[in-house]
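To illustrate the input format used throughout this study, we show a single complete record. The first block contains the structure-token representation of the backbone; no residue identities are included at this stage. The design step must infer an amino acid for every position from geometry alone.
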């Protein structure tokens, strides 16, 4: 039997992940009372079910320590499980709570940030011991589904680090959650070419204009070399998400072109990390 425990930060996508796994043939149960967890495992291991998901999270009405003790008791009795931890940046979680207008389960005084801070402390050890950690800050729904399918359906190698390449425009503000930021405003600007002004770096004409300059090719080679050095070391240190920002003036031409090129240079299914891309300001 494959028994998967799904947990993580509130708002990071735990319920979404459970629904996806249910669509993939897993029998899903969410937030059992702590007293029933071991009994649930006993019953399931004696049944004919071969794929099971148990969702757990931090709630005000029961101790998370007691939940973890129940899971440890499961393991001691020979009921093996894998743990999937869903995470996201504080900025992303705040945005999601603001959009949904929901209260955080641990925000006693109504302040979401305080609830997030409390939850991170409670879940710190759980995250560190999880078999799989997926940061959903920059993942589209379909990308999350693809990651879950790779791990829990296709049994492909788990990619512990997700690299997000994001273009942006400095005039709209720097990318606040970026780990690395590269400024490509040294390159000639297609905005001042009439036939390219209203196009973007996703259009072949703009791409060809930007990449015709030797400085663009040299820049791309140096960035690729730097990331080839950094990424294995980030993985070694247990980092789950790396956000690489590529900025130009408006975020539509040069940064989009170079972000696409970096993405293509890193995208390789055989690598031990995943790569995603987004263009923050391309529609402005």
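Output of the design step:
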């Amino acid at each position: 039997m494959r028994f998967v425990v799904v947990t993580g930060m509130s708002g990071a996508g735990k319920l979404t992940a459970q629904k996806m796994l249910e669509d993939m043939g897993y029998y899903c149960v969410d937030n059992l009372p702590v007293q029933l967890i071991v009994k649930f495992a006993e019953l399931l291991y004696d049944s004919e079910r071969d794929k099971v998901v148990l969702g757990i999270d931090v709630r005000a009405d029961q101790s998370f320590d007691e939940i973890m003790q129940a899971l440890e008791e499961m393991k001691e009795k020979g009921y093996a499980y894998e743990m999937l931890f869903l995470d996201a940046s504080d900025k992303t979680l705040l945005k999601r709570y603001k959009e949904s207008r929901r209260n955080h389960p641990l925000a006693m005084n109504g302040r979401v940030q305080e609830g997030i801070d409390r939850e991170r402390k409670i879940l710190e050890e759980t995250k560190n011991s999880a078999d799989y950690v997926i940061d959903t800050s920059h993942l589209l729904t379909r990308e999350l589904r693809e990651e879950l399918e790779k791990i829990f359906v296709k049994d492909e190698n788990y990619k512990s680090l997700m690299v997000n390449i994001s273009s942006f425009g400095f005039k709209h503000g720097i990318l606040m959650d970026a780990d690395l930021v590269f400024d490509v405003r040294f390159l000639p600007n297609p905005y001042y070419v009439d036939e390219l002004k209203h196009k973007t770096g996703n259009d072949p004409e703009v791409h060809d204009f930007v990449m015709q300059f030797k400085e663009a090719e040299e820049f791309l080679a140096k960035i690729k070399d730097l990331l080839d050095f950094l990424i294995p070391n980030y993985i070694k240190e247990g980092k789950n998400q790396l956000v690489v920002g590529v900025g130009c003036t408006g975020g539509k031409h040069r940064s989009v072109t170079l972000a696409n090129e970096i993405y293509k240079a890193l995208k390789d299914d055989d690598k031990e990390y995943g790569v995603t891309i987004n263009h923050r300001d391309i529609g402005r």
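Structural context for interpreting the output: The beta strands are 2-8, 27-30, 51-55, 82-87, 132-135, 161-169, 180-183, 241-248, 273-279. Residues 161-279 form one domain.
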